[in-house]
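Title: [Solved] UPF0735 ACT domain-containing protein CD30_11445 3D structure

Original question kept below for reference.
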Amino acid sequence: MKNVANQKYYLVREDVLTDAMQKTLEAKQLLESGAVSSIWDAVKKVDLSRSAFYKYRDAVFPFHSIVQERILTIIIQLQDQKGTLAKLLEIITIAHCNVLTIHQTIPIQGRANVTLSLDVTSMSIDLNELIEQINKLEFVEAAEVISSGAL
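Solution (posted by the thread starter after getting help):
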């Protein structure tokens, strides 16, 4: 077995994971939520072999499970309107994220980029939900995670 300290980790989008990796994540979620009581029930429910589950169970993790005690950096493209930053920060506050840094560019052609570094240790919602909520704001043109790192 490899020394965990010497392993490299990567953040990848869900759509590039193999089918077996995605099903392993689903099975782990079923087990964690209590929807099933055994690995056998979980793999059966998601149509995955037990050998594939054991192969990937300690190798693939949902992003939200590894962002504890983390700094998350998000870049957001905003329309230049009065009060947009305040409304954006309200969403961040409701999600129980702590703002560490804010960098906003000077608006050019009615748009500004805001880069937020957040302590997401106490975040109360899933990361995907946070990004969805930010993207739903009428003045947000795009929001995406650009990095994550340990505090």
